[in-house]
Amino acid sequence: MTADAGSGLELTELAADRALLGRTSTAERVAGILRERIAQGFFLPGVRLSEERIGSALGVSRNTLREAFRLLTHERLLVHRLNKGAFVRVLSAADIADIYRVRKLVECAAVRGLGEPPHPLKDVAVAVEAGEQAAARSQWNDCGTANIHFHQALAGLAGSERTDDLMRGVLAELRLAFHVMDDPRRFYEPYLARNREILTSLENGDAAAAERMLGYYLEDSRRQVIEAYPEQSPHGSGSGLR
Predict the structure, then answer these.
(1) CA 123 to CA 58: how far, in whole Å?
(2) 60, 87, 182, 229: which has the highest count of C-beta atoms within 10 A?
(3) Highest-scoring range by mean pLDDT, 82-91, 122-131, 166-175
(4) How many CB atoms lie within 10 A of CB 26?
(5) pTM of the model
């Protein structure tokens, strides 16, 4: 039986996003809302997205919603199955390895390319503090969101809108892997101190040390995620939904 995102909390929360669309609703804005909701885990890997119910919750036409689905499919967040509709993608171990390959290329390059200090670290610092505060409250999903913002902020040090767009999609895709893990604390808590150490190195003007730490960090994270990633998600096999 296929899980279907069509009722309950998901659509109640989604209906609250309707006000974000305004009068000039576009497929891009709808895609942005759904992207964020997928990243937050409201729609889990393997879940089918109901055109009728999601369109009604957001107050958009079926054509607009289908275009939004197409955009998210291009971003590898959704897959389309013939005669069955759009589903949240289930990642494979190869997908995860590739995501980390891109992350290392982009994030380390952003840190390596920093000029003379001081560096614009406000967003990095805010994300580190948010993660620590969420951990103190044992809110591990919020801690994971803060961790994503930390890495988005590191990539943002490149000062490139194209890099920001790339990393936004890559990190949203990575969240699909974490949503099928059983113990989010296990994956987020060990990296809080490492996030703080990277920030401290950058605040001290030592970008080279920060880049070295970040490289080791990403390799450790990649290995940990792949070793723990289930062969099949709770909502369906990876091969069947790709």
Answers:
(1) 30
(2) 87
(3) 122-131
(4) 14
(5) 0.77
